[in-house]
């Protein structure tokens, strides 16, 4: 086993990323917090099995994604129409409660809403790509082949571009950030 960093450092460096990743998939703040917490509990219990320190973030995302999928399988409620008002309120609450660095990682509300229109596998590929994971790491986290990860990412970009072109208007805000 290696330990270049304390577990507390690993937690501090990765918690917000895991929380944002899971929240982007589930849109339920409480559920995202529970999964993020469970991710670090599982990671703490099995940190000795991790051989390479460079794989910590991939390993943590894989744990989080598996926990999300497990919970989704257990609770498969019927699909309900998305209440844009509620989603907008949830996104506003999330923005208020996280750090400035994490705030910069959140896409505009329009893009977030449109991401929810993508199939889960496409949305996951895009979110992992936005976090800077390589195609190989995305494949490992999603539990699919490298080629399948590349295909999902390509299709998700194409589909999201189509949806955004149809439904959204973009502009630059006072910080010169595309909104």
Task: Give an overview of the whole structure.
The chain has 179 residues and is mostly helical. The protein is globular, with a radius of gyration of 17 Å. The protein has 2 domains: 1-95, RNA polymerase sigma factor, region 2, helix turn helix motif (Rna Polymerase Sigma Factor, Chain: A); 107-179, Winged helix-like DNA-binding domain superfamily/Winged helix DNA-binding domain (Arc Repressor Mutant, subunit A). The protein has helices at 7-26, 29-45, 56-74, 84-97, 100-105, 109-115, 120-130, 135-142, 146-167.
Helix fraction bin: 55-70%
Q: How many individual β-strands?
A: 0
Low-confidence stretches: 97-107
| Known CATH architecture of the largest domain | Orthogonal Bundle
The major sheet is characterized as:
none
End-to-end distance: 44 Å
How do the helices and strands follow one another from N- to C-terminus? Answer: HHHHHHHHH
Q: Assign the CATH superfamily of the largest domain.
A: RNA polymerase sigma factor, region 2, helix turn helix motif
Count of alpha/pi helices: 9
Shape: globular
In the CATH hierarchy, the third-tier topology of the largest domain is known as Rna Polymerase Sigma Factor, Chain: A
Proportion of strand residues = under 5%
Mean pLDDT: 77
Question: What key attributes describe this structure?
Answer:
179 residues, mainly alpha, Rna Polymerase Sigma Factor, Chain: A, Arc Repressor Mutant, subunit A, 2 domains, 9 helices
